[in-house]
Design brief:
165 residues; alpha/beta; 21% strand; 6 helices
């Protein structure tokens, strides 16, 4: 996990800072423990994770498993247009911090990273994020993309740290 990312993170349960210890993030106040798997912090409050979200994880992982590196090199027309609409509305994105919650297939995160944004891609599916991280490395974008496994319901981010959402 990159040190820069730790500056943005806080415990999703009690909103306090983390300490890093042996592949884990531990909140300083209540000692909630979250693993870091393959360099990706997994900040999901498992005991309170809704069954509906667990079902979504399964569906999302199946969808992402079908993605190939070619799908990021040759994006679909609607994906290109969505990225264009974002960059039309936010002219200056190079070196800006963008969070994408529910990154899914990751085409938006990859596209924004190609444009020079510092992208934090979040999703509830760790396997999808691991796969997306490998694609980012293959595309030479690993310095622009950061990954966090988390729920949008209880996000682990400090206030006012991103330029765009």
């Amino acid at each position: 996990m990159k040190n820069m990312l730790r500056n943005f993170l806080q415990c999703p349960i009690c909103k306090t800072a983390f300490s890093k210890k042996k592949g884990m993030l531990i909140c300083r106040k209540n000692k909630h423990i979250f693993p870091i798997k393959q360099g990706i912090p997994v900040l999901i409050d498992i005991p309170n994770f809704h069954s509906h979200s667990q079902q979504q994880q399964v569906v999302f992982e199946k969808t992402m498993h079908k993605k190939t590196i070619d799908s990021f090199i040759h994006m679909k027309p609607h994906e290109i247009r969505y990225l264009e609409r974002f960059s039309d509305n936010f002219k200056i994105i190079k070196n800006k911090y963008v969070i994408e919650v529910g990154t899914g297939s990751g085409y938006m995160a990859i596209g924004l990273a190609k444009l020079g944004a510092q992208v934090i891609a979040c999703d509830i599916t760790l396997d999808s994020l691991v796969r997306l991280k490998k694609f980012a490395k293959t595309l030479g974008l690993e310095k622009n993309l950061f990954f966090v496994c988390c729920s949008a319901d209880k996000h682990p981010f400090k206030d006012n740290v991103f330029d765009y959402f």
